[in-house]
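Minutes, methods subgroup
Present: GH (chair), OT, SY

1. OT presented the first of two proteins processed in the latest run. Sequence and structure tokens recorded below as shown on screen.
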Amino acid sequence: MLPSLSSVLFAAPSAAEGNSVGLLMIVAVFAIFYFLLILPTQRRQKKIRQMHQALKAGDRVITTGGIHGTVVSVRDNFIHLRVPPDQLKLEVLRSAVAQVEPEGAAADEAKT
């Protein structure tokens, strides 16, 4: 005698099938977290690290504290900034640089 269609469709999965489905779901959730959270963070950190390594004298930068200045010299983990209007010189950590201003930004400010 053949089993009815409803008993075949709605039969409970065996224990082995339930464990593999659970494991597959855990792997899928980890993959989603990796591609949506971990990978973009690693890319952003790599970009920031490259920016810090590429700092050179003459770059206009903004620190994490909001200080705008021009890099005078770079040594080890420190940079020396010249801060207008009094041409004050500051020594800050290289990692305190939040961004490097584009080259055209300094020229645009001088015009206004």
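2. SY then presented the second protein from the same run.
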Amino acid sequence: MKIDASELKSEGKEVIQNLADFIKNKTRADVNVESRIINASIENGEISKKYLRVLVKKFLHKSELKEYYRVISGNEDTLRVKEKKVYEE
């Protein structure tokens, strides 16, 4: 599974690394960070996309970024963290 966190770059590189560490602690998976894409894989199975989405949402809530970002489905095995559009009245 891949997580495209390229829109989190405005928050800093440490946020992307903290997200990778959070996923690694919760799933005990092999997590690699390549530029702004996080790859998570387990040797003897597969991480469900739904569970990984919940973990990313929890991380955004814990980091107080939930109001500004959301998690959407990308390709077959990809999740994307996108910035929410804010409309002014």
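Chair's summary of item 2: Helices lie at 13-27, 49-62.
Next meeting: continue with the remaining queue.
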